[in-house]
Amino acid sequence: MEAKKAAILNEIPRLRRYARSLLRDRDAADDLVQDCLERALLRLDNWQTGETPRKWLFTIMHHLFIDGLRRTSRRGEAAMLPLDAGEVSSVPAEQAENMASREIIDALQAIGPDRRAALVMVAIEGFSYAEAATILGVPAGTLMSRIARGREDLRALLEGSARRRAIRIVEK
Amino acid sequence: MTGRDFSEHDIHMALDGELPAEERAAYEAWLELNPEMKARSQRYAADRDALRQAVAHVADEPVPARLTRMVLGEMPKRQAGLRSRWWLAAAAAVLFMVGGAGGYLAGARGTGLEAPEDQLAEEAIAAHVIYAAEQRHAVEVPASDKDHMQSWLSKRVGIKLVAPDLATDGFELVGGRLLPAGANSAAMLLYEDQKGNRISVFVTAEAVKKSRGSYAQSDDGPRAVYWLDEGYGCAIVGSLPRERLNEVAKSAYRQLLAGMTT
């Protein structure tokens, strides 16, 4: 039991990095990690010992992420929450991030959650296509098309913002 | 095995370390012969490096005590009301991108990469995701003030807007609000049925080409059914079963069109 917990503790830095890519806001990302850990501890038996808990934990977190996004489109849940959407959106940008980093993370938030998760899982977290497809619960072909579309979306968004910046400079 | 045809597909495979080692040399040679593909591969590689760089510091940050304590079982059970507000921040980030200072999706207009109907549908879905989940602040003008709402939104959006009557489909008007849509304004009308399902009707005066269809960002998210024509675009968004959404959307569209021309 203690060995299992130690192995889970080891994965927290990676889980936090993945959550931050998905959500950008630090507190929100850590809330997602906390929900993930809470669920993992309730289901410790589901983890096959002998292998690293990484894929198992990422799978749990992905389900929570998708369930949470689905919840936003249902009525009423927001009423239970202590904050209004307007208050959350004004969370200040992290100071440690430089401008280019912020820009690409902002752009990442603007692409669809399915494509975002697939791209981050492979391009940042370094999972293989086979591993990522298992974690996300989709066929390999679907995963690959999400990655390709995700990269195209990201590029288009970055080119759009670069163009706007150029226009702003011209206007001055 | 060499000599096979490569495609853009292989750029992703190569970047993600999924291209078989024995194909690597042939792939590199193909890139040299296709400068456009080579440039694309380099842009994608730069984006990947920038992404990694942007979040690299997170893995080195000290782990917040609340997470460690959660694993060690030293955490008191959280109250239901306190947990999981993270997804609200995710929803707010979408709004920020679409309408706020970021304006990324709005900024993607005109890159030629995104069809205008996708833009309209994405804006309509983002607005729906945010406001349909709101209990107290879903609309700016309630249905009880319908006449005022219609004349105000018509003036701001620039088309004569008559709120469709969707009672035969089981939906009652909750109210409406004004939203940004690219460089223009959009009206959002929110409806609700007796079970609490909500749909929204999103209308802008900005559209140049004729188009109709439906759009969803993900399989399990809300779907938009849209119509565009010269001078207006409208999208009906909801998480209803597809058939039912189509039916309600058609009824709403027919009435909007009739309202515009009377």
**Amino-to-carboxy terminus distance of chain A:** 63 Å
- The SS-based structural class of chain B is alpha+beta
Strand content of chain B: 15-25%
Q: Give the mean pLDDT of chain B.
A: 82
Helix amount of chain A, in percent?
Answer: over 70%
Q: For the CA atoms, what is the radius of gyration of chain B?
A: 24 Å
Mean pLDDT over all positions of chain A: 79
Shape of chain B: extended
CATH class of the largest domain in chain A: Mainly Alpha
Give the C-alpha Rg of chain A: 18 Å
Q: How many DSSP H or I helices of chain A?
A: 8
Describe it.
The complex is a heterodimer of chains A (172) and B (262). By secondary structure, chain A is mostly helical. Chain A folds into 2 domains: 92 residues, RNA polymerase sigma factor, region 2, helix turn helix motif (Rna Polymerase Sigma Factor, Chain: A); 79 residues, Arc Repressor Mutant, subunit A. Chain A is 73% helix and 0% strand. Chain A is built from 8 helices and no strands. Chain A is globular. Chain B has 262 residues and is an alpha+beta fold. Helix content of chain B is 45%, strand content 18%. In chain B, helix 1 runs parallel beside helix 3 and helix 5 packs across helix 7. Chain B has 2 domains: 53 residues, no CATH class; 176 residues, MucB/RseB, C-terminal domain (Phosphorylase Kinase, domain 1, 2-Layer Sandwich), CATH 3.30.200.100. In chain B, strands 1-2-3-4-7-6-5 form a 7-stranded antiparallel β-sheet, sandwiched between helices.
